[in-house]
Design goal:
Elements (H helix, E strand, L loop, with lengths): L2 E7 L4 H19 L7 E7 L5 E2 L2 E2 L5
Parallel strand pairs: 1-2
Antiparallel strand pairs: 3-4
Length: 62
């Protein structure tokens, strides 16, 4: 069972996460030949003050 963990800044919509999960799942099925029903995609959302880019905390969502 492929387990895919995606870390991203908080603020994406449910629809964005659903579309991304479908695309990732499609790729795993195509490239790895995994059965679709066994592909698990887990999102870990990070608060903007939990990630620094270039030494600066990530900017708050627009």
């Amino acid at each position: 069972m492929p387990n895919i963990t995606i870390e991203l800044l908080a603020g994406r919509t449910r629809e964005q996460r659903a579309e991304f999960a479908k695309i990732v799942t499609d790729a795993v099925v195509e490239v790895l030949g995994a059965p679709r029903h066994l592909v698990r995609v887990q999102f870990t959302e990070l608060a903007h003050d939990q990630l620094a880019l270039g030494g600066e905390l990530a900017a708050p969502p627009a």
